[in-house]
Amino acid sequence: MAIYVGYLAALLGMICWIPQAFQVWRTRDTKSLSLSANLLFLITVSLWLIYGLMITDWPIILANIVSVTAMIAIVAAKLKYK
User: Fold this and answer.
1) Where does the sequence pass through the membrane (predicted)?
2) Domains in the chain: boundaries
3) Domain 2-80 belongs to what topology?
């Protein structure tokens, strides 16, 4: 049962930032986004990805690969469209 909870959490973690990334790139409106908060979250999910790789936990790895990618897109948009 725990593995299903892990995969559900991974799925929700993967998809929760994708709409924000698309919205930012579509509208180019980043003025309401905090660069420092998004950088901090990028560091956080990057560390979770490293941790998942170290313990070979696929729900953590998959969720954080997608989260890191989405956060890079958001931070890049914030830097590009100041």
Assistant:
1) 6-25, 37-54, 60-79
2) 2-80
3) Monooxygenase (1.20.1280)
Query: 3-state DSSP call for residue 13?
Result: helix
Give pLDDT tens digits for 7-27: 888 888 878 888 988 999 999
Question: pLDDT category, 75, cuts 50, 70, 90?
Answer: very high
Enumerate long-range contacts of 65-71, CB under 8 Å, 24 or more apart. Answer: 66/13, 66/14, 66/15, 66/17, 66/18, 67/13, 67/14, 67/17, 68/42, 70/17, 70/18, 70/20, 70/21, 71/17, 71/21, 71/38, 71/41, 71/42, 71/45
- How much is the pLDDT for 13? 81
